[in-house]
Specification:
Structural class of chain A: mainly alpha
Distance between the termini of chain A: 41 Å
Number of helices of chain A: 9
Radius of gyration of chain A: 18 Å
Shape of chain B: elongated
Largest sheet of chain B: none
Structural class of chain B: mainly alpha
Radius of gyration of chain B: 42 Å
Number of helices of chain B: 6
Order of helices and strands of chain A: HHHHHHHHH
Largest interface: A-B, 40 and 32 residues
Helix content of chain A: over 70%
Strand content of chain B: under 5%
Oligomer: heterodimer
Strand content of chain A: under 5%
Order of helices and strands of chain B: HHHHHH
Amino acid sequence: MATDKELSDFLEGVERRAFKQAAYAVRNEESALDIVQDAMIKLAEKYGDKPVEEIPLLFQRILQNTILDFFRREKVRSTWVTLFSNIITRKDGNDDFDILENFESEEGTEASESSADKVEREQMLALLDAEIQKLPARQREAFLMRYWEDMDVAETANAMGCSEGSVKTHCSRATHALAKSLKALGIQL
Amino acid sequence: MNTDIKQSSLSQASAELEFAYKVRRTLDEHVNSLPESTTNRLAAARKMAIARKKPESALHVLAGQRRLAGAGAVGHARNPFNDSLSWLVRVGIAIPLIVLVVGAFGIYQYEEARRIDELAELDAAVLSDELPLSAFLDHGFDAFLSKHGE
């Protein structure tokens, strides 16, 4: 059984990445913070007595499910609020997402920065963020779990509820798409 | 030919992996420069989650609550009652089981004794009863007595 400290250390290590994962999916920082909070509470309340080695996979599954729940709630709310589906398509569709809009808002926070290199780096990070956000959801999930969360193919497949072959395909496609788009933008990592 | 294909797929896989790890490094860098308001919210969420951590398995909590209702903070890691709790939980499960087994055995014994008494009373009543006159007039009964009397 994971002790309070072990669970706290795990959450501390994973919380920022979890926030970014949620933010990539829902494209709203406040909602992403709520999702991470919900996932943490669910993990602690329901699986706080599980062995510490089972916690990372459980947390990923809970996080992905909480993101899905968010989309379901949003969809229901959107349906009730308006008959038009423009909110849903803007949320789900990749085409309507404006990188420059996102990029400009990042720029706004950098007004006081003086170092040109730092600004350039931040711009590059914002563009990378935008490109990751533009990936299809399943490809992004697979890519982030495999390469950012250090989960192996089997664990990723388990968390995503798909086959190992699908995980490999998603990862490969995501890597190729990212490499291609970053190259087109002239970004060298 | 096959070796060439294998080598090219291997080099492609390693190039993919290398690119993925570059992205990972960049993302790590990015994540370490999150605004303070965000990191504070995350820390607060973490503390809230830890405060609501599931203390023990459901069975232990249930048994603990029955045995120690009102003792407060049941099953907490730093609870001084924690050590005695597991012992009490075991006793709490064992005592009702023993009572159940002893009770079932007692009921069986009582029912058995009652049944024997009833049969004895019946036998005594039959043995002490005088035979009706019609029985002696019954030839079949005579034959029965002579046959079984032998």
